[in-house]
Design brief:
Number of helices: 20
Shape: elongated
Order of helices and strands: HHHHHHHHHHHHHHHHHEHEEEEHEH
CATH architecture of the largest domain: Orthogonal Bundle
Helix content: 55-70%
CATH topology of the largest domain: Ammonium transporter fold
Length: 570
């Protein structure tokens, strides 16, 4: 193998590595969307992120790649079924797979903004339209030799071509679809609907951040002929923008909400990544840091504006992150551009480096063109879907959750399944010991009574933290309580929960997750049950729980007809 062949092989390998990383962004988007929404819709979101890739891939291969890269004209490529002609005319299979995963990214952005109330069938249809037509046409203008490319428009890795397309489609879809039930009160004031798992959301952001090095760095397409230096600079500028945006959002939310908002700060990381994507190859590290700071302000105030002023319900912040930051980042090429790019007689140096307004004007034309194209076409697509097959699920389906209504699963989480019984075993003893409760306390003997008249019946209700459940069950078992009912509940005490903000919307009362254990006692003294529970649950901090004691008038065993004390015996 000669030097030329080796360089070509390295370049192709670099492109394929980038394509693999961009594909893995599907997992990141799935985790972000799942974590920032409610558990009852988790399976639906996972399914949508799977299918937008699996539907988009064959459609992009069938017609999308030809429309994007075919030499048909300045505004659209050619219909080249199965991409055979285009691949043989200046492009290769590496380009096809690289652009396929980019196309899937544009389609999946829309899912988050329309989550929790969109029909799965409708999602499949509009996702297919984005992959087959919407993304390829505007992509042709930017990357396929179209009219924007001839003007000198610069979008290195897709702030406009990918993220702005997805963000505008998300805006149109969320507007036509309408807000989730309960999102706005009768006065139009937004109410926070927190996601169920910040852990999943954070995992998704870290996956996306990692994969963005393939998204931006892989867009050099090569490592030979000096491209390796560009790729290294892209890694630096991409990372700097993300970190500066994250720190900026942290500071803004800390000042505005009195506490640093976790989900908004995670959005800040993505905002910095999106904003620098168009210009990561042409800005200096200082320019990338400035872009990250600007993106931080854009995403916080942009999400608040969309949610509170426009009354558009976007559960994950996709419009602010991808739409607004995609547009701003593309425009900032004309401000912070430093390294030369392009050969179309356009001054590539940005405004602050003395390049004049020419580049900024070209970037502005490109942004407006993409916004108009996506807005018009997606409005038509969404309205057709809405008036034919329907875009939104019914009120009853939305309340119950899309997992059970659309996919027939009760829950996507094993955590909601019954916990294996370990009481009375060595495993149970170790578990209780790990929860700092001594299970070797003296056992209170059960008092045997001869008649129901000799015993009063009491109901004891204990509300406490989930983390104390196993120790509490073990303690009750050790004093002879074997019958209990445990449920997961949400509620607040006299502290009225934790007053806080979530994505800019104030949580007046935060319902906290708790467990409620209900026990009926006859033979065991009530004081024994109460004192044992207090010993187990006490930490001295707010949230230890409450114990409620009720007199029970009667009990009826349905199977035998027995009542009172006798109904509670085997």
């Amino acid at each position: 193998m000669n030097i030329t062949d080796l360089a070509s092989a390295v370049d192709t390998g670099w492109m394929l590595i980038g394509a693999a990383l961009v594909f893995f962004m599907q997992a990141g988007f799935a985790m972000v969307e799942t974590g920032f929404t409610r558990a009852k819709n988790a399976g639906n979101i996972i399914m949508k992120n799977l299918m937008d890739f699996c539907l988009g891939t064959p459609l992009f291969w069938l017609i999308g790649f030809g429309l994007m890269f075919g030499a048909g004209g300045k505004f659209i490529g050619t219909i080249d079924l199965f991409a055979d002609g285009v691949v043989g005319e200046g492009y290769n299979w590496g380009t096809l797979i690289f652009q396929t995963v980019f196309c899937a990214t544009a389609a999946t952005i829309v899912s988050g903004a329309m989550a929790e109330r969109t029909k799965f069938s409708a999602y499949c249809v509009y996702s297919a339209i984005i992959s087959a037509v919407i993304y390829p046409v505007s992509g042709h203008w930017i990357w396929g030799g179209g009219w924007l490319s001839e003007l000198g428009f610069h979008d290195f890795a897709g702030s406009a071509a990918v993220h702005l397309v997805g963000g505008v489609a998300a805006f149109v879809g969320a507007k036509i679809l309408g807000a989730r039930i309960g999102k706005y009160d009768k006065y139009g004031k937004p109410k926070a609907i927190p996601g169920h798992s910040l852990t999943l959301g954070a995992l998704g952001v870290f996956i996306l951040w990692f994969c963005w090095f393939g998204f931006n760095g892989g867009s050099t397409i090569a490592l030979s002929n000096g491209a390796d230096e560009t790729a290294a600079r892209v890694f630096v500028t991409t990372n700097l923008s993300a970190t500066m945006a994250t720190v900026t959002v942290l500071a803004i939310t800390w000042i505005r909400y009195k506490k640093p908002d976790i989900s908004m700060t995670l959005n800040g990381s993505l905002a910095g990544l999106v904003a620098v994507t168009a210009c990561c190859d042409t800005v200096t590290p200082m320019g990338a840091a400035a872009i990250g700071i600007i993106a931080g302000f854009v995403v916080v105030f942009g999400i608040e504006f969309i949610d509170q002023k426009l009354k558009i319900d976007d559960p994950v912040g996709a419009i602010g992150v991808h739409g607004m930051c995609g547009a701003v980042g593309t425009l900032l090429v004309g401000v912070f551009g430093y390294y030369e790019y392009g050969t179309n007689n356009v001054n590539s140096v940005g405004l602050i480096y003395g390049g004049g307004f020419n580049a900024l004007v070209v970037q502005f034309i490109g942004v407006i063109s993409v916004i108009v194209w996506v807005t018009v076409t997606m409005t038509i697509a969404f309205l057709i879907i809405k008036n034919t097959m329907g875009l939104r699920v019914s009120k009853e389906e939305e309340i119950l959750g899309l997992d059970i209504q659309e996919h027939g699963i009760t829950s996507a989480y094993a955590d909601f399944m019954p916990i294996p019984q370990v009481l009375g075993t060595k495993a149970g003893e170790k578990l209780a010991e790990s929860l700092e409760y001594d299970v070797a306390r003296e056992t209170i003997p059960v008092i045997k009574l001869n008649s129901e008249e000799e015993s009063k019946i009491h109901k004891i209700v204990i509300v406490t933290k989930h983390s104390r459940l196993e120790a509490l069950k073990e303690a009750m078992n050790n004093i002879g309580v074997t019958g209990m009912t445990v449920t997961n509940v949400m509620g607040v005490g006299q502290q009225m929960g934790a007053g806080e903000y979530y994505r800019g919307a104030k949580l007046d009362v935060t319902l906290l997750p708790k467990i409620k254990m209900e026990i009926i006692v006859t033979a065991i003294p009530v004081e024994t049950v109460v004192n044992t529970a207090k010993d187990v649950l006490y930490t001295g901090h707010i949230g230890d729980g409450k114990i409620f004691i009720y007199n029970v008038e009667n009990v009826v065993k349905v199977r035998t007809g027995e009542t009172g004390y006798n109904a509670l015996q085997d």
